Amino acid sequence: MSSPHCQLSGVFAKFVYLFQFQFVNSFLSLFYIAFYLQDMEKLKEVIVCFEILNPGTYTVSLFALA
User: 3-class DSSP state for residue 22?
Assistant: First the structure.
């Protein structure tokens, strides 16, 4: 039987993995447009689309581009 500490470590590891996966999944396209394509107009359009789909998440990014 595993100790509660080991169980907590496993839960934390899963949380960290899911957070990293979600971060990369959400923002990789923004980094690609911003730094590889260097197309700020396209970046603004994508951020607005993300804002419509998930309100409140990208507001800070949108103000940073203004």
Answer: helix
Please list the rounded mean pLDDT of every run of 10 residues in the chain (66 residues).
63 82 82 91 87 64 52
- pTM for this structure? 0.53
**Residue type for position 10:** G
Q: Which residue has the tokens 């690609």?
A: 32
Contact criterion met (CB below 8 Å) for 51 and 57: yes
Cα distance between residue 38 and residue 13, in whole Å: 35
Q: Where are the beta strands (DSSP E) in the chain?
A: none
Q: Give the N- to C-terminal CA distance of the chain in Å, as an integer.
A: 55
Distance CA 51, CA 45 (A): 10
